[in-house]
């Protein structure tokens, strides 16, 4: 274990943990808004939930980017031989 | 899941070309899909049978979505977008077949798919507006935007790659970790969730491809 590997593990954990905060808040807001809209207009529930799923997947992508960066740091780190 | 999700081990060699697992799965999928389509569309009648009605429903649904996005005639885009949708959907759902990893869980497959979309964007843009007209769309609304528009072409292709790769790969990864920690049958709910994610990601990939192509073919015109 040298310093680069130790720092890599910590930075991967940091990337995932902080990268999950923003998308979590965003998804919460999106679901809350969709629930509100469904409560107002139950007829449009089908369209709303389809759009919601697509939007959620888009927001979730931000967290996935952080996961990919963490995996790059852990498995394909350019600074460890 | 053995070790790094970013490294591929070649299964065998054809001459100097290494053949990896996703390549084999992709070719089998291609053969199955092509054969299935050929068999299903062999005897089309004016008065449709049950299978034909289901197929027509599927194609009509794709057509309706496409018309909402690109507007006007959907015939030039239907084959490409439909094939991308069906391929990505089936490839994502390969995770439920034992012993098979989805080819989209490796970044090379996603890169190939996104490059097809990138090429199709340029092709349809040039076809609809001519080479000069397509190049001129980069200078809209003013020439100041040229570097930004060029960067956008690359970043959106890249985000298309990483979105599909990250979602499918993380699903496979999580199921592998749960399996090694908790044992047999425990990751089944996660696999069900993975089916949903796979379907949504296939839909998003196809919709984004349609949006990019539609924007290139009709931008400003």
Q: What can you tell me about this protein's structure?
A:
The complex is a heterodimer of chains A (81) and B (221). Chain A is mostly helical and 81 residues long. Chain A has a single domain (19-75), classed as Up-down Bundle (F1FO ATP Synthase), CATH 1.20.20. Helix content of chain A is 85%, strand content 0%. In chain A, helix 1 (3-40) packs antiparallel against helix 2. Chain A starts with a helix and ends in a 6-residue tail after the last helix. The model of chain A has no long low-confidence stretch (mean pLDDT 88). Chain B is mainly α. Chain B has one domain (14-217). Helices cover 71% and strands 4% of the residues of chain B. In chain B, strands 1-2 form a two-stranded antiparallel sheet. In chain B, helix 2 crosses helix 6, helix 3 (75-92) runs antiparallel to helix 6 and helix 5 (146-182) runs antiparallel to helix 6. The longest helix of chain B is centred in the C-terminal third of the chain and has 37 residues, at 146-182. The interface between A and B is medium-sized, with 14 and 18 residues.
Rg of chain B, please?
20 Å
Count of helical segments of chain A? 2
Residue-averaged pLDDT of chain A, rounded? 88
Q: Determine Rg of chain A (CA atoms, Å).
A: 18 Å
Give the key terms.
A: 81 residues, mainly alpha, F1FO ATP Synthase, rod-shaped, B: 221 residues, globular, transmembrane (chain B), ATP synthase subunit a (chain B), transmembrane helix (chain B), ATP_syn_F0_a_bact/chloroplast (chain B), ATP_synth_F0_asu (chain B)
Mind sketching the topology for me?
The complex is a heterodimer of chains A (81) and B (221).
Chain A: H1 3-40, H2 45-75
Helix pairs in contact in A: 1-2
Chain B: E1 10-14, E2 17-20, H1 21-40, H2 50-70, H3 75-92, H4 107-136, H5 146-182, H6 188-218
Antiparallel strand pairs in B: 1-2
Helix pairs in contact in B: 2-3, 2-6, 3-6, 4-5, 4-6, 5-6
Domain V-ATPase proteolipid subunit C-like (chain A): 10-72
Keywords (chain A): ATP synthesis, Cell membrane, CF(0), Hydrogen ion transport, Ion transport, Lipid-binding, Membrane, Transmembrane, Transmembrane helix, Transport
Subcellular location (chain A): Cell membrane; Membrane
């Amino acid at each position: 274990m040298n310093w680069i590997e130790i720092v890599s593990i910590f930075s991967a954990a940091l990337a995932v943990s902080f990268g999950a905060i923003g998308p979590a808040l965003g998804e919460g807001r999106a679901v809350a808004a969709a629930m509100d809209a469904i409560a107002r207009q139950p007829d449009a529930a089908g369209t709303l939930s389809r759009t919601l799923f697509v939007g959620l997947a888009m927001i979730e992508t931000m967290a996935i980017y952080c996961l990919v960066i963490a995996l790059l740091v852990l498995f394909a780190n350019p600074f460890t031989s | 899941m053995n070790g790094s999700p970013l490294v591929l081990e070649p299964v065998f060699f054809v001459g100097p070309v290494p053949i990896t697992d996703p390549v084999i799965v992709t070719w089998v999928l291609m053969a199955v899909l092509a054969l299935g389509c050929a068999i299903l569309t062999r005897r089309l009648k004016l008065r449709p049978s049950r299978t034909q009605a289901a197929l027509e429903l599927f194609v009509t649904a794709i057509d309706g979505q496409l018309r909402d996005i690109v507007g006007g005639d959907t015939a030039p885009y239907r084959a490409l977008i439909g094939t991308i949708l069906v391929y990505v959907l089936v490839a994502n759902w390969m995770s439920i077949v034992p012993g098979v990893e989805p080819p989209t869980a490796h970044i090379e497959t996603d890169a190939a798919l996104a490059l097809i979309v990138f090429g199709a964007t340029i092709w349809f843009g040039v076809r609809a507006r001519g080479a000069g007209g397509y190049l001129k769309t980069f200078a809209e609304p003013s020439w100041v935007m040229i570097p930004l528009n060029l960067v956008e072409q690359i970043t959106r292709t890249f985000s298309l790659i990483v979105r599909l790769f990250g979602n499918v790969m993380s699903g496979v990864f999580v199921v592998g970790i749960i399996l090694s920690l908790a044992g047999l049958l425990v990751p089944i709910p996660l696999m069900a969730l993975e089916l949903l994610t796979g379907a949504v990601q296939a839909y998003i990939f196809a919709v984004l491809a349609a949006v990019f192509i539609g924007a290139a073919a009709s931008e400003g015109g």
